[in-house]
Amino acid sequence: MGVRNGAQYLDSLKDDRLIIYDGRPVGSVADEPGLRNTAKVVAQFYDFQTSAENLDSMTYCTADGERVGMAFKEARTKDALRQRAVAYGLWAEVTCGFMGRSPDYMNSFLSTLGSVSVLLSDVDPQLGERARNIYLEARSRDLCYTHTFAEPFKVLPAPPHEPAPACIVVRETDDGLVIRGARALATLAPFANMNFDLPGGAACRHNDIPYLCGFVTPVAAPGLRWICRDKHDVNHTDSRLAARLDEMDCVAIFDDCLIPWSSVYMFVPLSAALPGFDYVMSVLQHHVLIRSIAKTRFVLGLAHLIAESSRVNQFINVQERLGEMVCWLRTLEAFAVAAVEDAVFEERSQIFYPNPRTTEVAGIWAAQLYPRMISHLLDLGGSRHVSTTQERTLDLLGDLAEQHFRGDSTDAKENIALFRLAWEVAGSTWGARQDLYERFHFGDATLRKVGGYLRFDRSQAVEMVRRILSSPLQSDAIFPVPKRN
Ligand SMILES: Cc1cc2nc3c(=O)[nH]c(=O)nc-3n(C[C@H](O)[C@H](O)[C@H](O)COP(=O)(O)OP(=O)(O)OC[C@H]3O[C@@H](n4cnc5c(N)ncnc54)[C@H](O)[C@@H]3O)c2cc1C
After folding, report:
1. 345-361 pLDDT, tens per residue?
2. 47 with 4: CB under 8 angstroms?
3. How many whole angstroms from 446 Cα to the centroid of ligand 1?
């Protein structure tokens, strides 16, 4: 089949998916107010990749001659990594980086699952084969995936009672695993065809040993419900972001769902090592990095324009903030170069992966920078963020609008549109969700930094300090030279 266009994608949403919003099932996602515009934007992604102008950048031909999405490409050369990054970047520019879970995000994940299937085969050949097939099917059908990873409303253990796991394997049958319970948090779920449950999902025991289980399932699988948070779109016409794009976040509830064995890509003792998952994460974080560059550029542009519109950009402190945002953008761009130039070649799969250390640090930076950029944006606009009104009110005010709502070089309508846009990003409910997304969607940055420190090989750093400490205490002594191995 190969790449889909927007109409084919929208057609694929006509199934028995059970999306629950405000106490009722949503009949058709593509028609539901507050969801339908996002369905259109996802469809736009598919039209974008199949347009004559973008086809060569957004897609490629497999060895079998099938044209498929670029994010599915397994990088046998560094150049392939660059091509993939260009494709991520082209789409991220369209949505200004505000679509975290555009289909290419999980497509890149699935391509890496396909690549590391050879490593999974070392653990269990059947699992390796299933992982490869899951990838090939996603690629060939151009499926749109969401993913679940965490427990909703996780409660940490408080002795003497252990909280019950939120999701369990209730039965193992000849046909597959039967899953019961809840999983979080599936961004884009109403608009996806499939869900990828990351390893560590449903708790289970096999032969009385704790087991790690991971599986894929159609969003429309029988017994699976998707519980939506509030919609964030606004029902007047002055919104340029929230009204167009709200990816929605859902809790999945499995009500004794049968997962066929062919969809179980992970079923191993909890103590087993998960080979290749570092590479899977590095590819995902590479996507995050490229998207974050687009988003940073957009917020920087917004900050510059609002500072200019009120002429506060003449002040050195304002210029310093804008300069800081330029540094952040340049840092992310440098990470993107380093991730590819310093890519890691893995012998068994014969694949290049973006450098995992670089992408991990870049991901943490992106998570930390976004809230700081939003804080700058709020500071630069001050009360102007909430001195706005609606376009129709400006029409009503006539000349008064131009007297009181214009900017330095913008008329009232342009100026108000600019500040409304800034408020959507920095102050609205939709904006707050974007902020939370950047902080948490890949796990909490604090814990990721702690992990980075604990895994860090400190020997070289410590050795440097020891060399100086162990040198003689003489004022005329020169530096002791490090031993070369
Ligand atoms: C908008 C949004 C979209 C998301 N989309 C997806 C998605 O599509 N798919 C998906 O799988 N997941 C998604 N996530 C969920 C994401 O995986 C989780 O947010 C992440 O795993 C962190 O878990 P948590 O939110 O339960 O926070 P927690 O890990 O519980 O953290 C909450 C706070 O407690 C602190 N804390 C927690 N544990 C410790 C500890 N051991 N020591 C010290 N401090 C600790 C943290 O520092 C943090 O401040 C999304 C999250 C958000 C906010």
Report:
1. 999 999 999 999 999 99
2. no
3. 10
